[in-house]
Write a structure and sequence with these properties.
mainly alpha, 3 helices, 45% helix, extended
C-alpha cells in the first residue's frame, strides 16, 4: 500500500486518508520513517478564520 501511494496510484484525497490511518495504527512509525514528523505535520492545517469554541 505504501509503495502504491508513493507511485501516485491513489487519488490525493484517498491517499491522505490512508496515510492518516497508517500513522494512527502504527504502520508508519518514527523509527522506520525519518520523515514521520513532517508527514504528520502536513496532514493538519491551521484554519485562517475564527472557529466556534466548544466547551465541554
Amino acid at each position: 500500500v505504501k509503495q502504491t501511494i508513493l507511485n501516485g496510484e491513489w487519488k490525493v484525497n484517498s491517499a491522505i486518508v490512508m496515510i492518516d490511518f497508517m500513522l494512527r495504527h502504527s504502520f508508519i512509525t518514527p523509527d522506520e520513517d525519518p520523515d514521520y514528523i513532517q508527514i504528520s505535520y502536513h496532514l493538519h492545517r491551521k484554519l485562517q478564520f475564527p472557529t466556534p469554541i466548544i466547551k465541554a
